[in-house]
Amino acid sequence: MIKNIFFDIGNVLIHIHPDRYIQYLADSADLPVDVIKDAFPLEVHYAYERGEISGHEFFLSVRDGLPQPCCLKESDFWRGWQKLLGKETEVVSFLQSLSEKYTIWLLSNTNPRHIKDELESQVSFLEYIDGGIYSFDAGSRKPDSAIYEYALEKSGAKANESVFIDDLLDNIIAAENLGIKGIHYVDDEKLINDLKKFGIQVEEMTQNHV
C-alpha cells in the first residue's frame, strides 16, 4: 500500500526556463547566448546544488569562465537566476486531494536561492507538502543513491510504501533500484493513469495555477 508520494519540483510542479536565464546573462554581460552556454560550468553548478560551495563562489565561477574582461555583476547574475523559475504546472491542482490521503514530500536537485528566496514566497502548493528533501541539504544530487536514502531517513518513509515522480528517467531508475515505486512524468494524463496503477485515485484537475 502506498503511503508516501515524493515529487520532483522542476518541470513537474514548476516550469523551468533555462533559456530565459541564459538570455538574461547574455544581455547583462553583452555576450552572445552561445558563449554563455558553452562557458557555463555545469560541474560547479552541481557542486552548488550539493551545498559544497556558496552562492558567491558559484557566481564567481560563472563570471570568471566568461571572456575577460567581463562586466557581469553579481546582482544581474541572481536576477537572471530568478528567471529560471516559471509558473506552476497543472499537477499542482490535485496536490490538495492527494495530501488528504498521503504524505507528500518534495525531492529536488535545487539550491538555497530558489528555495528560500523564490519558492517559499511565490508558490501556492507548499501548504499541501509535509516536507522537502533538497540536494543542498542532503549533500547529494539525484540520481545518486545517497539522496534517496537521505529522503527515506528524513521522511521516515519505507521504500515499498513510496512513489517518486520525476521528469528525468535516470532519476526514476535510481529510486526504483532502492525499492521505491517510480513514475516518469511526461504529461498530466499519463501521470494520473500511472498513479491509478498504484491504487492512487486522483481528482481531475479543475483550474489553472500560476
How many angstroms does the end-to-end distance come to? 33 Å
How would you sum up the global shape? Answer: elongated
Order of helices and strands: EEHHHHHEHEHEHHEHEH
Q: Biggest β-sheet: count, sense, barrel?
A: 5 strands, parallel
Unreliably modeled segments: 206-210
Strand content range = 5-15%
What does this structure look like?
This protein is an alpha/beta fold. The chain folds into two domains: 4-16 and 87-197, Rossmann fold, CATH 3.40.50; 18-82, Orthogonal Bundle (DNA polymerase, domain 1), CATH 1.10.150.240. The protein is built from eleven helices and seven strands. The protein has a five-stranded parallel sheet, with helices on both faces. Helix 10 (169-176) links the parallel strand 6 (162-166) and strand 7 (181-184). Helix 1 packs antiparallel against helix 5. The longest helix has 12 residues, at 18-29. It starts with a strand and ends in a 13-residue tail after the last helix. The relative contact order is 0.19.
Task: Summarize the entry for a quick read.
The chain has helices at 18-29, 33-39, 42-49, 55-64, 74-82, 95-99, 112-122, 135-138, 145-155, 169-176, 188-197; strands at 4-7, 14-16, 85-88, 103-108, 131-134, 162-166, 181-184. The chain is α/β, with parallel strands linked by helices and 210 residues long. The strands form 2 sheets. The protein has a 5-stranded parallel β-sheet with strand order 5-4-1-6-7, with helices on both faces.
Features:
single chain, 210 residues, alpha/beta, DNA polymerase, domain 1, 2 domains, two-stranded antiparallel sheet, elongated
